[in-house]
Amino acid sequence: MQIKWARRIEELPPYLFAEIDRKKNELIKKGVDVIDLGVGDPDIPTPKHIVESLREASRDPANHRYPSYVGMPSFREAAAEWYAQRFAVNLDPASQVVTLIGSKEGIAHAPLAFVDPGDIVLVPDPGYPVYPVSTTFAGGVPYPMPLLKERGFLPDFDSIPEQVAERAVMMFLNYPNNPTTALADEGFFREAVDFARKNGILICHDAAYTEIAFYGKKPLSFLEIPGAGDVAVEFHSLSKTFSMTGWRLAFAAGNERAIAGLGKIKTNIDSGVFQAVQVAGITALRESSEGLLQRKEIYRERLEIFCRGLEEAGIRYTRPEATFYVWFEVPEGMTSSEFSERMLAEAGVVVTPGNGFGDYGEGYARVSVTFDTHRIEQAAERIAKFRP
Ligand SMILES: *Cc1c(COP(=O)(O)O)cnc(C)c1O
């Protein structure tokens, strides 16, 4: 017999990278040196003092038992202190912060807390695929907000039809943005607060990259905007900031009732984050600014190396001022998928086709520079020789 799959997984969009993965593995088998710049996962290890902190905390039997569902009070306090220092945003750690098993967990669970079947969720397109998928899992309907180059990759709230805005209960935003690398300014965030207030929409701001910015840029927290606390929660992750993707540690902060809603879902689905990991997270939040500067320098250098390769090939791109991605335009007359396939076949470089992030990603491609600098140099040399 064939086990029946629920419609929610049966109807998942096809995995766009499956074909590229297959071709990549074929080439590797043939002995081709493939450089895979697909996944955004820091190669720089977690700072030693954070690892040491885990080691110590893991020895304490008090940390071997079930953690609190919503996170250790001490971790939530450290998160609140960090917000106060970094953004001058004051949060009550007990009611306005909840620990997450990575921000992907919180983002994926958010629609279960706030979306009823048929409700609309506004999602950026291109965007992190978890936004529309988690919406669909909860029975909601994702409505794409195009991120266009001519608008600095910021959605245009005026172009959202009134009937859509009325049915919308939630909106995902993400700045600094993956995949476009765009930053949002205060004016845009203010518009978002007004739009949310007017239409009764909860804004879920994914702030995974606020600490990875260059050239003196200091990305904002959405919660810095007056009134944001009434309409928003922000997801912040230790993954990218502290090179801790494998640890699964993040938190959501902001509106009390929204935080309580997320907490209800978590209480009924998971049992929180290993306490020793939270203790290490406190160490990260309290004493890690120097390492961060060094890591950012490494990313900035790699981004510039890669962009020079694009320039030599005559490929258009927006200079990344944040994140560790380059979002660039595929040469005219080619689709994103065709370009990715040719990059792989002719240059042995894996790039992510932009349409993997939504229809409005068509015509673009993304690379991540979370790989050894020498490999980025090689990839840049190969792409520099690419002729459409
Ligand atoms: C990496 C990433 C995340 C997920 O981070 P985790 O905390 O490791 O789950 C969330 N959003 C975006 C846009 C990301 O790129």
Tell me about this structure.
The protein has helices at 7-10, 17-29, 48-58, 73-87, 93-96, 103-114, 130-137, 162-167, 186-199, 228-231, 238-241, 256-269, 275-286, 289-312, 336-347, 373-384; strands at 35-36, 97-100, 120-125, 141-146, 168-173, 202-206, 232-237, 250-254, 325-329, 349-350, 352-353, 364-368. By secondary structure, the chain is an alpha/beta fold. The strands form three sheets. Strands 2-8-7-6-5-3-4 form a seven-stranded mixed beta sheet, sandwiched between helices. The protein has a three-stranded antiparallel beta sheet with strand order 9-12-11. Strands 1-10 form a two-stranded parallel sheet. Helix 9 (186-199) links the parallel strand 5 and strand 6 (202-206). Helix 3 packs antiparallel against helix 13 and helix 6 packs parallel to helix 7 (130-137). The N and C termini lie far apart (49 Å). The structure holds pyridoxal-5'-phosphate. Pyridoxal-5'-phosphate is lined by residues 40, 102-104, 128, 174, 178, 206, 208, 237, 239-240, 245, 250. Residues 40, 102-104, 128, 174, 178, 206, 208, 237, 239-240, 245, 250 line the site of pyridoxal-5'-phosphate (PLP).
